[in-house]
Amino acid sequence: MPQHDAAPGVATAPASWAAVEQLFGTKGEPSRCWCRWFALTGAEWKTSTPENRKEQLKAAFSAGPAPGVLAFDGNRPIGWCAVEPRANYPRLKKSHVLRGSKVGFGDEANFWAVSCFVVAPGHRRSGVSSALLAAAKEHAFGNGADVIEAYPVDTAVRTKATAAELFHGTVSLFGAAGFSIVSRPSPGRAVMRCLAGTMTGGGAKQ
After folding, report:
1. Bridging pattern class, strands 147-150 and 111-119
2. Rounded CA separation 38/163 (Å)
3. Fewer CB within 10 Å, N or C, the chain?
4. pLDDT tens digits, one per residue of 8-67
């Protein structure tokens, strides 16, 4: 059940498997990826199926802290943000985005990463992503993170970014939540970080 109000009409909580399964459904990219793109190497992804990925995400709920947070409208899940220790995302080790970071990839448990947003149709650009990111920060820092990292798209540069790219979130979204750019590994992409104790700023609804 939702734990607290995070935006008008939206409540957030650490994710439960049943609610994630309801949100992702059976159609569309979430039901094919199951938020495992970063959690699998390239070779593992090629040999996996949507059913495999679904079971892997389900298993992540038993392995430790929930691998993300949810937003609710009443009791209905309307949004998801994946946030886990960075070491749980092996694809990042070879990512050109992370290679642009000023600190190399390690298995530091105190480094967490926000990797994905899913917002249900009809609830986009209404503050759900902002509420999810605030909840993701609370969840990560509450479970021992010292640094939260993200890899968003800069829509000021990539003005025609597709929905398939925007699942990373946007620079403006993370900036409003207190994240700072540490590098720009490619045009229109950034590595951003937030340190424990960083205050959240204001910003446009996303």
Report:
1. parallel
2. 17
3. N
4. 678 999 999 999 999 999 899 999 999 999 999 999 999 999 999 999 999 999 888 999
What ranges in the chain are assigned the alpha helix state H? 17-24, 30-33, 42-47, 50-63, 96-99, 128-142, 163-166, 171-176
> Is the separation of the CB atoms in 70 and 19 below 8 Å?
yes
Which residue bears the tokens 């439960």? 16
Measured from the Cβ of residue 83, the count of other Cβ atoms closer than 10 Å reads 29
Q: Dump pLDDT digits (tens) for 117-157.
A: 999 987 777 789 999 999 999 999 999 999 999 999 998 88
Angle between helices 17-24 and 50-63 (to 10 degrees): 150
d(CA 122, CA 138): 26
